[in-house]
Amino acid sequence: MSEERTSLAGVGATPRSGVGTAVRYAPDDALDLDDATSADVDPETERDRYEAAVEGAKADLERERERTAAEVGEQEAAVFDAHVKFLEDPQITDAVEEAIEDGHGAEHAVRNAFEDPIEQFEGMDGRMGERADDLRDVRDRLLRELLGTERTGLAELDPGSVVVAERLTPSDTARLDPDDIVGIATAEGGRTSHAAIIARSLAIPAVVGVGDALAAVEDGDRVLVDGEDGELVVDPDAERVAAAERDDAADVRRGPVTTTDGRAVEVAANVGGPDELAVAVERGADGVGLYRTEFLFLDRDEPPTEEEQYKAFVDALDAFEGGRVVVRTFDVGGDKSIPYLDVPEGDNPFLGVRGVRLALGSARDLFETQLRALLRAAATEHGDALAVMFPLVATVEELTAALDAVESVAAALDDEGVEHAVPELGVMVETPAAVMNAAELADRVDFLSVGTNDLAQYVQAAARDDDHVADLHDPRYPAVLRAIARTVEAARDADAWVGMCGEMAGVPENAELLVGLGLDELSASAVTVPAVKERVVETTYGDAETLAERARSAETRREVTELVEP
What we know:
Elements: E1 6-9, E2 11-14, E3 17-25, H1 43-71, H2 74-77, H3 79-87, H4 90-101, H5 106-122, H6 126-130, H7 132-147, E4 161-165, H8 170-174, E5 181-186, H9 194-201, E6 206-208, E7 222-226, E8 231-234, H10 238-250, E9 257-258, E10 264-271, H11 275-282, E11 288-292, H12 306-320, E12 325-328, H13 356-359, H14 364-377, E13 386-390, H15 396-416, E14 424-429, H16 432-436, H17 438-442, E15 447-450, H18 452-459, H19 478-493, E16 497-500, H20 511-517, E17 521-525, H21 529-537, H22 541-553, H23 557-564
Parallel strand pairs: 3-4, 4-5, 5-6, 10-11, 10-17, 11-12, 12-13, 13-14, 14-15, 15-16, 16-17
Antiparallel strand pairs: 1-8, 2-6, 3-7, 7-8, 9-10
Helix pairs in contact: 1-3, 1-7, 3-7, 4-5, 5-7, 12-14, 14-15, 20-22, 22-23
């Protein structure tokens, strides 16, 4: 790079700043193939090699999924389920078969089969276009299996590294160590790509979509990554470095925040494992709005014991020293598979036996064990800050059965002379049925928590893992907003508080709208907590109510977006 200081514009993907040494990363040269075909290729042998590579890739994806779920979060790990589906996509598998019959070896057949789907996604806008990187990830995984090559190391980079690349795949990003990597800059990609989502969960400053100008950044350049303003600065001066570090630190607000006219809004963090607790505290989260307990069940051959779960819950409570910690009872099924649990697959697992349905059915013993650990944790030093919510509730009968289970467990602990307490109890509102039954549900619990990821999926009839309907999964659609508003109104009438733990709450631009809708708590990825808090303190509640009313009356998502981001 020239000695002249250079600023490159991109899209801010993680609202943090970092300064470090650029490390260029490119796909393995060993994956480059020539265009040769051969009449000597034995189709049967090549098909066998391809099928073995697919099985190897699936096993690798399962390992990667479990590791990502444990270290990053269950939601972020779900991308690898979509990658398995790509391996089974007839458009790809049929193309591989045809290429092998035409005299190509398995490696060339794989490369050729992925070309058209990748090109198709690249020609699309928004989230759909960003799925091209997922296809590249799957293609390269298959090629490594066929060629017997290892992935280029990203997990062992020196502390203070800024990864500079044309693009990063989800599996690339999930392998980064946030203790060593101080920033990411890519030429391609957008804020909603899976790699960007994982980077935010890891709290790694990131700028994406810098374009061709990024090619001029060389190994060893000192660079500043400004993930708030979407800027990469080469050879930043001391003043700019100090300003970035000051801004990054200033973003963190300790303690509760209020709007300009005094309405308190709790801003909590979504946590998918013990490693994320420290990040949530560091980023100023008031507590935990969603503690995903699935990580306790992953990467093992048998379920966690009562003592293991008890310790995990107490550790979370102690980390926040009185800040509310909302624990979701295990939400298994759908896109979350646990090998040792008997979960019927069904034709549509998202609509099958999952969440509270599984807990009240074949996994009843595990549910009661988890409840024992939770009630015991509620009696510890910071236990009065514990809240527990049940996932995927659709009916009053389901909630009644779950509450009866709590009462039964409490009675058993009492008979055993074990110290315990019953924490705040709540329901995740993530089905249209829960919205319609919100008044009846709120009458029976202390709080409701809106899970917008599943709620948008069900309200819009748009599967979360189907890229063809990804745009319909946007919670800014008026129907989803009206479902949220109805839930808030039901909670208010029942004197229950209401929060939101879906991805919608983690978008700072949504904060004013959500405050205006009446949410008492917003729970987001830890890295976005400071930005959400900043938006809250800049909001006037009266103006936010007006904004929310106009958004509820809107007819299209575009109208809502223009209101939220004028």
